[in-house]
Amino acid sequence: MMGRGNLEAARVLVEELQLPLTPEEVVKISAEKLLELFPSVPLLPGVEKLVRHLHKHNIPFAVATGSGTQGYDTKITKPQKTLSTCVAFGEIR
Predict the structure, then answer these.
(1) DSSP secondary structure string, 12-36?
(2) DSSP readout, 38-92?
(3) Are the C-beta atoms of 90 and 68 separated by less than 8 Å?
(4) Ordered per-residue pLDDT tens for the chain, 93 residues
(5) Is the dihedral angle over the CA atoms 29, 33, 35, 38 positive or is it negative?
(6) Is 30 in contact with 10 (CB distance < 8 Å)?
(7) Which residues contact 55 (CB under 8 A, 6 or more apart)?
(8) d(Cα 33, Cα 31) in Å, to the nearest integer?
(9) Is the overall model pTM greater than 0.85, yes or no?
């Protein structure tokens, strides 16, 4: 649920689906599952080719994400060699 924090989204989910879990349990289970799944998710078609092209031609680019540092580090494993600066959601002030 875009635009909501993890706990608020979990509260809505628990309430709407009448889950036998607390919002905190949903957040914990979700985080564990996402950390397990993210490293094996393939890049979208064309992403690797685009990143290599931009890097080869010294064209600056950025990855924008609303993820925190841990989520970002888990997701961005393949193109990381070409990224010189990484700023995650929790680091922006």
Answers:
(1) HHHHHHT-SS-HHHHHHHHHHHHHH
(2) GGGPPPPTTHHHHHHHHHHTT----------HHHHHHH--SGGGG-S----GGG-
(3) yes
(4) 778 889 999 999 999 999 999 999 999 999 899 888 888 888 789 988 988 898 899 888 877 766 666 666 666 665 555 555 556 555 554
(5) negative
(6) yes
(7) 82
(8) 5
(9) no
